[in-house]
Amino acid sequence: MAAQAEFFAGIPKISYLPNAGARDVMCFKHYNAEEVLMGRSMEDWLRFSVCYWHSFCGTGTVATDPTLPLCADPFGFPTLHRPWNEGTPMESAKKRLHAAFEFFTKLGVKYYTFHDRDMAPEGSTLEESNRNLDEITDVALQLQSQTGIKVLWVTCNLFAHQRYMNGAATNPDCHVLAFAGAQVKKGLEIAKKLGAENFVFWGGREGFLSIHNTDVAAELKHMANFFKMAVKYKEKIGLKCQFLIEPKPKEPCRHQYDYDAMSVIGFLKHYGLESHFKLNIEPNHTTLAGHSYEHDIVMASTFGMLGSVDSNTGSSDLGWDTDQFPMDIRDTTLVMKTVIEQGGLQPGGLNFDAKVRRESTDLEDLFIAHIGAMDTFARGLRNAVRIIEDGLITGMVKERYSSFSHGIGQKVEDGSATLEEMEAFIKQNGEPKVTSGKQEKYESIFNHYI
Amino acid sequence: MAAQAEFFAGIPKISYLPNAGARDVMCFKHYNAEEVLMGRSMEDWLRFSVCYWHSFCGTGTVATDPTLPLCADPFGFPTLHRPWNEGTPMESAKKRLHAAFEFFTKLGVKYYTFHDRDMAPEGSTLEESNRNLDEITDVALQLQSQTGIKVLWVTCNLFAHQRYMNGAATNPDCHVLAFAGAQVKKGLEIAKKLGAENFVFWGGREGFLSIHNTDVAAELKHMANFFKMAVKYKEKIGLKCQFLIEPKPKEPCRHQYDYDAMSVIGFLKHYGLESHFKLNIEPNHTTLAGHSYEHDIVMASTFGMLGSVDSNTGSSDLGWDTDQFPMDIRDTTLVMKTVIEQGGLQPGGLNFDAKVRRESTDLEDLFIAHIGAMDTFARGLRNAVRIIEDGLITGMVKERYSSFSHGIGQKVEDGSATLEEMEAFIKQNGEPKVTSGKQEKYESIFNHYI
Amino acid sequence: MAAQAEFFAGIPKISYLPNAGARDVMCFKHYNAEEVLMGRSMEDWLRFSVCYWHSFCGTGTVATDPTLPLCADPFGFPTLHRPWNEGTPMESAKKRLHAAFEFFTKLGVKYYTFHDRDMAPEGSTLEESNRNLDEITDVALQLQSQTGIKVLWVTCNLFAHQRYMNGAATNPDCHVLAFAGAQVKKGLEIAKKLGAENFVFWGGREGFLSIHNTDVAAELKHMANFFKMAVKYKEKIGLKCQFLIEPKPKEPCRHQYDYDAMSVIGFLKHYGLESHFKLNIEPNHTTLAGHSYEHDIVMASTFGMLGSVDSNTGSSDLGWDTDQFPMDIRDTTLVMKTVIEQGGLQPGGLNFDAKVRRESTDLEDLFIAHIGAMDTFARGLRNAVRIIEDGLITGMVKERYSSFSHGIGQKVEDGSATLEEMEAFIKQNGEPKVTSGKQEKYESIFNHYI
Amino acid sequence: MAAQAEFFAGIPKISYLPNAGARDVMCFKHYNAEEVLMGRSMEDWLRFSVCYWHSFCGTGTVATDPTLPLCADPFGFPTLHRPWNEGTPMESAKKRLHAAFEFFTKLGVKYYTFHDRDMAPEGSTLEESNRNLDEITDVALQLQSQTGIKVLWVTCNLFAHQRYMNGAATNPDCHVLAFAGAQVKKGLEIAKKLGAENFVFWGGREGFLSIHNTDVAAELKHMANFFKMAVKYKEKIGLKCQFLIEPKPKEPCRHQYDYDAMSVIGFLKHYGLESHFKLNIEPNHTTLAGHSYEHDIVMASTFGMLGSVDSNTGSSDLGWDTDQFPMDIRDTTLVMKTVIEQGGLQPGGLNFDAKVRRESTDLEDLFIAHIGAMDTFARGLRNAVRIIEDGLITGMVKERYSSFSHGIGQKVEDGSATLEEMEAFIKQNGEPKVTSGKQEKYESIFNHYI
C-alpha cells in the first residue's frame, strides 16, 4: 500500500506518554489486542471501529466542500486541513480512502463505519451519486481485501442535504421520502457488497422543530412503513447484517422521535418491527436525553436490544452533541460490564463516533485521541473483568434479590401470584423489615476496581 | 353541610382582580362552566379536579404529621397551618374531608383525586390502615352523595412509608412487594366503593438510585407481574374504571422506569399490558424529562394512550418537580387543542396536581390559585376552539401533507410501496423541490389566537 | 434606490394573517411606530434593529462561502439561497448591502447591527481586509444617509477564523491577541465612521474547552488588558459610543468567561473597568446559563448595567443557542416592563439577533419573522404600559417592602443599623408574623394584562 | 468518654473491602493521615471535616422533629432511626453531641461544622434559643477540649423556620431581617466561644420564587447592609475567623442571589465587601449552576477567593442538590490540584456536606460513606501530587503561554501595550500560525495519573 505512506509518514511515533519516545505509533499502555480475558481476546471483546466522517471528512466545522458533510462548529471556519482533501471530489475521495486504511492499519483497528455520502461525493442526480459510490466502494473492497479490515456498519446520510431539511422518512412531501428510499436501497446494496455486519438508521431529521406545523401521527406511520420497505428489500437481496436504530433526543431537530432507547423500543413494538431491529447506543445521545452515561446501554441490553455502541462522550455541562473521545474510566468500566454480561456485542462493536476537537489540528492528534480512548476502554474492560471474576458485587446483588427465589417471591417471579395472596401474606407476616440499600458501600467497592 | 362553614367562612370574596371586590368567591373572569363550545359545556371539556394531598394535606414542607405525606420543601419547616389539622389523626382526617368538600363546592369543581394515605391515616398494621380507610371513605361517600362531587381517580401511596424506600413493586425484597400488593387490593376496593372513574399508578420509587445495586431486568419483570395482578383483581371485582400510569423521569429516584410517555408505552407493549392501561400525563414531569410542556400529551394522544392530565406546571429553569398552578396561556392552548382533537378526556380530566407555594400562607390563596389556573385553562380552551373552528392552521397542515393522499404517497401511506418503486420514482422525477416549513408563520398565526 | 427593488420585489404582500391579503408588506397588527405610550413613541421605546449576519449572510448552515460566517446547522448543508449571494465576494457584499437597506426600509426599522466580517469579506491580509471594509462601508454610509437608517452597534468577529480557535484576547499565543487588537482598532474606526451608537464585544472563544491546557488567571488578565487598550483607543479617536459586553455561558467554548450578567459585572469590577462598559443581554444566552428568560435583563438593570438587548429566544428544552425570533408575549411583557422602569434603553435597542429557521426558505419568511417578533414586542410594550399605569402590581410590591421606610427598617436601609440593635428589637418585639408571598395572586393579575 | 461507646459500639469493623474483615473501623485503603506529601501531611492538605446536620440530624427526610432540620426527601418519611434521637429535644441534643464526638474520634477526623439550630434546638423565643445554644455549646467546648477536635466553621440556619420563608436578610419585612441579625449576632459569639476557624453564610432563602413580587434592588442592598453589620460586630468582639459565602444557584429559592462564584464576587465588589469574605464552594451547587464540577473552585482560586470546600457531589443527570459523598477520583484529583497550587486551604478545609442516602439505613453506612469519600480524596491528592511533581502537564501549559514572557507579549502582560502596537505588529508579522490545543493529549496524560 504505497499510497498510504504519504499521509501519516511524518508521524512515526506518538509521544503523549512521558517516556514513550522510543515506541512506535501504536504505543498502547493498556490495550493489548491479543491478550485473553475471560476466554476471549481484548480485540474480540472490544471490536473497535473507526468512523469515517469525523476522522477523515472532518474539517473542524461544517465543511466548505459539500462532500464532507459532518463535523460541527456553528461559529467557526475549518481548522483541520488534511493532506487528502485535494483535487476533485472523486480524487480526494480516493485519497481519503487510502489515508483511512493507512490509519486503520497503523492503529491496529479491524473495523470502520461510514455514511454513503462521506465515502463518495453526492452527484447532481441519484444516478451519478450511485455511480460515485460504485466506483469508490470498488476501491474500498480492494483495500478491505488487502488489509483484512471490515465494515462494522454502513448508514445513509438522510439529513445533510437540503432536500431532507424537513425530514426524510417523515418528510411532509412524499417525493422526499421516495428519495430517501432510493438512497437506502443503494445503501443496502453497498452494505452487501462490502460485507457490512450491521446497517444503521439515525433519524437526525425524523422529528420536528415546531409542533404547530407537524402531523405526528402521519409522520410516525410513514417512518414505520419506510422501515418495513427496508426490511423487505434486505430480505429480498439476502443481506445478512443486523439492522440498528440509533436513538438521539434532539439536534438537529428540536425533538426526534427516536428520543432514547425506550422510545425506540416502544415505537418498534407498536409497529411490529421489534424482531428486525436492535439499537446502536451512543452515550453522548443518552446524556442529552437526561440519562446517565450508561443508562441506555443497560436498558437496551435488558430488553435484549443492545446491538452496538457508538463509544464517545459528551460533557455533562453542555447541552449539545460534542462527540468527544471517551476518556472516563468509570464510564467505560460500566459499559464493558454490561457488554460482558450480555456475552459480547457481536456482530456490533465499539465505534468511535468521536472527533478530535476543532483545536486539535495536528495530524498526530488523530492517533493520540484514538489511542487514548482505546486505552480507556481497555482499562474499563480489565476493571469489568475483575469485578465479574471477583464476584463480590454480583454476589451482593444476588443476595439482595434472593427473596424471589422461593415461596411467595417465586410466585411473583413466575407470574402466578394474586393480590389476594399478597394481602394474606401481609396479614400473616406483618410489616417488612427495612434493609439498607448500601449505595456508598457499592460505590466504594466499585472504586476499588478502578 | 354545616361543618364546612367554619373553614372557609372567613373568605367571602376573592379580590385578586382589580375590581372584583363586589363578587363572591367564584369570581372567574374566563371560566364559565355552563357555556357551550363546539357542542359541549366548558365544564365537560375541562373536567377539573382538585387534588387532596397538596390542597388539604400540604403544610409547606414534608409534614411533621406522618398522615400528611406530601408537599416538599427540603430546607424548611411547615408554614401552612390549616384549621382542619387538629385533633387525633382520625379526627383531623374527618375535618379535612369536610373542609375539602366545602372547598370543592364553593369552587364549583366536580371531581377530586386522592391517595389512600392522605384520605385516611396509615395505622400500625395493614388491618388498622384498612379500617381507617373504611371509616373515612364512609364519610366521603356520604359527602359525594350530598354534593354530587365525584372521584376522578384514586391512587395508592406506595412511596412515602419507609418500607418503600427501595421500591414497591420493584423492591428487592418480595415482602415489600407483597405489602404494596395488599395496599393496591384495598385501593381497588375503595375505588369501586366511591365510584372512581380512573385508578392511577405513579411509580415514584419504581426505579433506582444506583445502578450498582440494581437488577433492572428482575425489577421490570416484577413490576409487570404486579400490574397483571392488579388487572386480574380489577376484573374479578368488576371495577369499571380506567387504569392509568403516570410517567415521571426522576425524583425521588435518580431514575424511574416510567421515564416518559414513550418509555411507558414501550414497557406496556413489551409485557402485553397495553390494552389495560392509559397514561396520566403531568406536564411538570414531561419537562423534567427534557421535553416541551405539551410533548407527552401529544405523544400519548397520538398512540391512543392519553387518559388524563395532571394540569400543573414547573419552571423551565428548575430541575425538580415544583407542582405549580398552570398560568401560561400558550401551554393551556396547546393542551386543549390536543384534548379537543381526540374528542375529550373522558373518563379522565384535568386534575390540579398543584400546590400553593410554601409562602402562600393565606387560606384565600387556595382559592386564588385554583381560580387563576381554571381561568388560564378556560382561556386555553377558548383559544383552541377558535383555532380549530377557524381551520386556518389545520388547513395549512393538511395541505402540507397532501402528497400522501394519492399516487406514490398513497402507497406509502397504506404500506404497499417498495424501495424499488421509490428508486424508480426518483429516476423518473429527479430531485424534490425545497418547501419552506414556515415555522415563524405558524407561530405568528398561533399568537394571533392567544 | 433602484438596486433594491430587485431583491424583494416579488414579495408585495405578507399574507400570514387570515385577512391581510390586501395589505402591503408591513401589515403589523400590533406595532404602530408613531403611537405614543407614556410620553414616548413605540418606535422610541422599542428601538428595533435588524442584524446583518443572520438575515443577510445566513444560508441555513455554516456557509460554504467563508465570507458568510454565521448561521449554524451542524448537520446540514445550506438551504437558504439568497439572490444577493452572487458574484465575487466584494460584488455580493455590495448586493447584500443594498438588499439589507431595501429590507430595513420596507420593514420600517431604523437600526441595524453587523460584524466587521459579515459586512465585508476578510482578505488574505489585515491590510486587504481593512481595504474591503473601507470600500463597503463607504457604500453603507451613503445608504445610511439616503435612508436615515443608523447603526445600533458594530462588533468584530473574533471567533470564526481559524486563528481564533483557541481564543482571541485570551489566546495562549500573543500573536493571535495582537491580530484581534488590530482588528478591533479598525472596528472602532469603522464605528466612528458610521456613527455607531454602541460597540459590542462578544467573547465566543474567550473561555476554554479543557481546563487541563488552560491558565485561567493569565487569560483573564490578558482579556482585561485587551479591554483597556480598546478603551484607551476609543478615547483617543473621540469615539462616543457605549461599549457593551455580551454574556454567554458556553458554545462554542465549553465555558466562556462572560458566563452571565453577574460574571461580567464581577470581572469588570475586579479589573476596574465598570465605568467603561455596559451589557448587551441576549435572553437565549441567559436561559442557556440556567436562568429564566428575563433574569439577566433584570439583574443588569438593577446594577445599572443594562445597555442593550438582543431580542431573541431559545427553546427551553434545548441546550444550545437557537436564536429564534421572540414570539412569547409573557417574555416580552417582562422585558419591556424592566426597560420602561429604567427609562428606556437609549443608546441601546432591541436587536433581532435571530434567524429564520433553516427550513424557512422563502424570502417572505424574513419579513414574516420580523413582523411577528415586532408585533410580539409591541404587545409586550402595551401590556407593560398597562401594568405600570394601573399601578396595581407596583402598589402591592411597594406595600410589601414598606417596613423599610421607617424605624429600624429605615436604619437598615441607610446602613446605620447594628446587630446589637437587631437583637434589641427582637427582644422587644418577639417573633415576626408570617406574611403570604401571594405568588399565585401576582401571577393571576399579571395574566390579566396579557 | 464512656457515653460514646453506646452509639457505635456495635460497629467494630467495616467490611466493605473484600478482605478487610480483620481490620478495625478505620480501614482506610488510601488515606494515611500522617503520610507526608510535598512537605505536608495528608491530614494537613485535606483538613477533613464532618458536618453535623446530615450525619447527626438527618433522618432520611425533612424531620418530624423540628430540631432536626435538614435532610430532604420530599416524597418520603424518615428512614434513619438514630439511637441518639431520644428524650426531650435538649436531652437528644446532648446525646447527639456525644455520638458525634465518638464518630469524629473513631473516624480520625479533626474538624466539624454545624448550624446553630442543629447543635441546639430552637426555643419559642430568641432568648430561649440562645440559652439552649449556651448550654449545648458548653458541652461541645468540653468535648473539643477532651478530644482536640475543632470547629471548621459555624453557620446560622436562616432558612428552615417559617419566619424565613420569604428570605432572611432579603425578607420584605424588616422584622424578619432583624431576627436574622439577632441570630447571627449570637452565632458569631458562639463561633468565638468554640474557636471556629471560619463562619459561613449560605443564603438559601436570599433570592426569589417570583420576579413579580420582588424588588431585587432593595433586597440586594439589604443583604449588603446585613453583611456589613456582621463584619462590624465580628471586629467589635475580636472574632478572628474567616467569613465565607457559599454560592448556590437555586433550591429552595427559584433563584438565589449567590448563584455561583462569579455572582458572589460581583456582589462583594459592588458593595465593597470583598476584603472581608472568601467563598465556600460546594461542587454540587456548582454543577447545579451549569458548570463543571471543578469550575467554581478554579474560578474562586483564580480570584484569590477560595476559602473552603464542601466536598460532596451530585449526579449530573439530576437537577437538585443530592449532597452525595464524593466518589469520583477524577473530580477529587482536579480539586486537590487546585488546592495544592494555591498552597492549601487553611483556615478552610474539606467539609463533607454529604449525607448517606435515605436508603443507607445501617449505622455502619455512616462510616463506610465517610471512609469511601476520604479514600477518594486521598487518591485525588496522591494523583495531584504526582501530576505536579512530574511537571509534565505544568510544563506543557507553561510552554503554551510562553509568548507572553517577552516582546509584545510582555507588554500585553504588564498592561503597557496599545492597539496601535498590535496593528503594527500584525502589519509586520502577518498571520499567526495555527497551534493545536491538544486536548486529547492532555486528557490522555491526565488519565495516566488516575
What is the strand content of chain A? 5-15%
Major interchain interface with per-chain residue totals: A-B, 103 and 103 residues
Q: Report how far the terminal alpha carbons of chain A are from each other.
A: 41 Å
C-alpha Rg of chain A (nearest Å): 24 Å
Uncertain stretches of chain A: 1-5, 15-26, 63-71
Shape descriptor of chain A:
globular
The sequence of SSEs of chain A as H and E is HEEHEHHEHHEHEEHEEHEHHEHEHHHHH
Number of E-state strands of chain A: 12
Oligomer: homotetramer
Average per-residue pLDDT of chain A, rounded, comes to 92
Structure, explained:
4 copies of one chain form a homotetramer. Chain A has 450 residues and is of the alpha/beta class. The first copy, chain A, contains 17 helices and 12 strands. In chain A, the strands form 3 sheets. In chain A, strands 3-4-5-6-8-10-11-12 form an 8-stranded parallel barrel, surrounded by 4 helices. In chain A, strands 1-2 form a two-stranded antiparallel sheet. In chain A, helix 7 (174-194) links the parallel strand 5 and strand 6. In chain A, helix 7 (174-194) packs parallel to helix 8. In chain A, 65% of the residues are buried. Chains A and B meet through helix 7, helix 8, helix 9, helix 11 and helix 14 of A and helix 7, helix 8, helix 9, helix 11 and helix 14 of B.
